């Protein structure tokens, strides 16, 4: 295996490939950045925003490398970005997505890049892109929004547990009341936390005594982003004001770099737990750390969507994802936070170290010359009958994924052993950082 120090993933190290998505009729439409593939493959969503840059896409791709690595899933990090306005080109959205799909076809055909949905794009967009790229999507697709909310929620729970706080005394502000933000608000409400501020593309609302999540959900269903204009008895504020509200927990949930030089010294929240990727720069994160603010790495907090996409592709369910988040992801987060003593810089250091070591191991083909029988004997010796049973259940699940009951649960457990279980071992075996 490659030496970790020799191939250290430095913050400013360039991605392995930047691909310019160029259409012969419409010109440059955007980019695909492949940061670090695993055995030739990398995955990440396609973002659609008029001001997106190569630098932003590259940072997002790096975050995906860490995210896949942290979960110990054999996939590299990548990201796509579309920046053109179809109206300025005199075309409709469908034509733009098809043109982008054709332009990235070489990457998609070779499975060098596996695209997904991201900020500004929809499943319908992805269907058009993949069809034009020559790799039509399977009929059943995955919406990992709830599972993203699950890992953000579990991270918050572990912070509260270590801090010995009472959930009922804690106030939260969530940027972006979309699929993930609204799911998170429901989960937080169930344990008694108080959502005092939230936002959509139409602006933000705040109420110091708390917003009623049931009302928010109803207004979201009826009005969409316009819900902020219909919630009664609240103060309407600019979204920029949401970040400086006097809350305990701030959840950035939309565009990158929202915590910046304009507001970094005015942020009141003790804990920053992002739904979105790269909510701030490392320079501004350092300022927050100096102000004793705990900033959780994005790839740790919001990795649930990636976990769900992989698990569901393996025949598991959303319920199975939740089971692993609550049983295994929770252990990882608790150990990292406790070892770091809730010091944000150390949390990032440990998390990146774990993710990168996993990435290097996953990128090293298995050179074991052991026979299957020898490996099976080794499993029984190390893991006992339970390990043999889990592997048998995994084999059964691969052939009959609809099997339920104890066999299904044992297969989920085996998935966890091979994935998050190895991350748990690495976190618990490392030297504690003082």
Structure description:
- With 434 residues, this protein is of the alpha/beta class.
- The chain has three domains: 17-132, 3-Layer(aba) Sandwich (Rossmann fold), CATH 3.40.50.10860; 146-354, Rossmann fold; 366-429, no CATH class.
- Helix content is 48%, strand content 14%.
- The chain contains 17 helices and twelve strands.
- The strands form two sheets. It has a seven-stranded mixed β-sheet with strand order 9-8-7-6-10-11-12. Strands 1-2-4-3-5 form a five-stranded mixed β-sheet.
Mean pLDDT: 91
Percent helix among the residues?
A: 40-55%
- What proportion of the residues form beta strands (DSSP E)? 5-15%
Q: What's the number of extended β-strand segments?
A: 12
CATH-defined architecture of the largest domain: 3-Layer(aba) Sandwich
**What is the CATH homologous superfamily assignment of the largest domain?**
NAD(P)-binding Rossmann-like Domain
Explain the layout of strands and helices.
Blueprint: E1 17-23, E2 27-36, E3 42-48, H1 54-70, E4 76-82, H2 86-89, H3 93-103, H4 105-109, E5 113-117, H5 123-132, H6 145-163, E6 171-174, H7 179-190, E7 194-200, E8 203-206, H8 213-223, E9 235-237, H9 239-242, E10 249-251, E11 271-272, H10 282-290, E12 294-295, H11 298-301, H12 304-313, H13 318-339, H14 344-362, H15 372-399, H16 405-418, H17 420-429
Parallel strand pairs: 3-4, 3-5, 6-7, 6-10, 10-11, 11-12
Antiparallel strand pairs: 1-2, 2-4, 7-8, 8-9
